[in-house]
Amino acid sequence: MSMSDAELAAHLAQDAGRILLEVRDSGHYHGKDLGRAGDTEANAVLVAAVRALRPEDGLLSEEEKDNPARLGKQRVWIVDPVDGTREYGEGRTDWAVHVALAVDGVPSVGAVALPGLDLVLRSDSPAPVPPPPERLRMVVSRTRPAREALAVAEALDAELVPMGSAGAKAMAVVRGEADIYLHSGGQYEWDSCAPVAVAIAHGLHCSRIDGSPLVYNRADTFMPDLLICRQEHAGRVLQEIAALG
C-alpha cells in the first residue's frame, strides 16, 4: 500500500533520525567528523527514498548538488538531513531532521524529527498548542542571537530561551515551550520549509519579518528572515520589527 506524502515525510524524518543516532552511538566519529558522517549517511537515505518513491518530483537537499530542474516542478521535496550539525556533534538534543514537500512554492507537507527527544512532529497530525504562560518566551540562537530578536524581546518583555537548530526552535513554539521564533540572520530553504509546514498545520503564524509570505523552490535558496509565533502575537511582533526600521 503506497504512503501519502505526509506519511512518507514522517517515515523519512524518523528513519534518518534513527540512522543519525546510530552513527553517533557507534563511537567511530567525533566532533566535526561526526557531523559530516551523519549528514552524509542521513542524506543518502533521504535522497534515495525520494527519488525511488516520488521520481517525478523535484528535490532540494542541503547536502546534495542543486539540480535546477526542480524549478520547473510543481512538487519539490526540500530536506535537511541534520539541522543543527553542531548540536548533533555535541551530543545535545536540540537538533532536527527536516522533510518537506513544497507545492507551487507553498510549504504544504512537513515532518520534523527531534531524534534526541524521540519525537516526530507532522503536518498531518496537529495537536493543540498548549496555552502560554503570563510572560512571553522567545527562542533565540544559543550562539548568535539576532539583534532584531533581542530588541523585540526587550520591547515585549519576553524571556529569552537559547536553543540550537532552527527546527528545534520552531518546534519549541509548536510544542508550547516558547511563543515566538524570530530569525533575521539569514537561512536557507531547507532550514525552514518543514518546520513552517508543521507550524502552519498547528495554526501558528508563519511569515517573513515584514509580514510577507514565505515562498519556496526559488532559484536563490537563501531566505533572509522568518517569524513563527502564536497568531495572537503576530501583529504586535510585526509592529515592533517595523518600528526598528
From TrEMBL:
Signal peptide: none annotated. GO terms for biological process: 3'-phosphoadenosine 5'-phosphosulfate metabolic process; sulfate assimilation. Mg(2+) binds at E62, D80, D83, D191. Keywords: Magnesium, Metal-binding. Its cofactor is Mg(2+). InterPro entries: CysQ/Inositol_MonoPase, Inositol_monophosphatase-like. CDD domains: CysQ. GO terms for molecular function: 3'(2'),5'-bisphosphate nucleotidase activity; metal ion binding. This is 3'(2'),5'-bisphosphate nucleotidase CysQ. It comes from Tsuneonella aeria.
